[in-house]
Amino acid sequence: MVKLLHTFKDKEYLYLDLECIRGVTLTQLLISNQTLATPFLGLVAAQLVLILESLHAQGIIYRDVKSSNMIVNSTGQVTLVDLGEAKQITLDGLITP
Predict the structure, then answer these.
(1) pLDDT-based confidence at 19, cuts 50/70/90?
(2) Domain containing 52 — which CATH number?
(3) Among 7, 28, 1, 5, which Cα is nearest to 18's?
(4) Beta bridge partners of 9
(5) 81 CB-near residues (< 8 Å, 6+ apart)
(6) What whole-number distance in Å separates Cα of residue 97 and Cα of residue 94?
(7) Does residue 10 belong to any structural domain of this protein?
(8) Distance, CA of 56 to CA of 70 (rounded, Å)
(9) Catalytic residue set
(10) Could you tell me if 21 and 52 are in contact, meaning their C-beta atoms sit under 8 angstroms apart?
(11) Containing domain of residue 29, as a range?
(12) pLDDT for residue 94
C-alpha cells in the first residue's frame, strides 16, 4: 500500500503527503506487453493476497481492486493505490460510512 508520510492543513484544506511510487500500473503493463508471463502474474496475485490480508487484519475492506490501482515497480513489487473506496469495519462488523 502507498504510505502516508505526513498530513497538514490550512483554513480550507487537509493535505496528505504520500510516498512517491515509481512504476507502471498493471493495466499499462498489459497494454504494452499484450501478454504477461504466468510466473509474473502469480507473483502479482500472491502480493495482492498478502496486501488484502493485511488490510483485513486491520479491519479495512478495499473495494476497488482492479489492475489500474496496482503499481508494479521495476523489481515486480506491487503497491496498491487509491484507497478512496476503502471502508473501516467496526468491531460489531458494521461498515463505517
Answers:
(1) confident
(2) 1.10.510.10
(3) 5
(4) 14
(5) 1, 2, 21, 69, 70, 71
(6) 9
(7) no
(8) 18
(9) 64
(10) no
(11) 22-88
(12) 67
For 22, residues 6+ apart whose C-beta sits below 8 A from its C-beta are 73, 74
pLDDT tens-digit series, residues 79-95 = 998 877 888 887 776 66
Does some domain include residue 17? no
Number of domains composing the chain = 1
pTM: 0.76
The beta strand positions in the chain, using DSSP E, are: 4-9, 14-18, 24-25, 60-61, 70-72, 78-80, 87-88
Residues 36-70: pLDDT tens digits? 889 999 999 999 999 999 998 888 898 899 999 99
Task: Return the amino acid letter for 44.
Answer: V
3-class state of residue 48 by DSSP: helix
Q: How far apart are CA 1 and CA 79, in angstroms?
A: 5
12 in a domain, yes or no? no
11 lies in a domain?
A: no
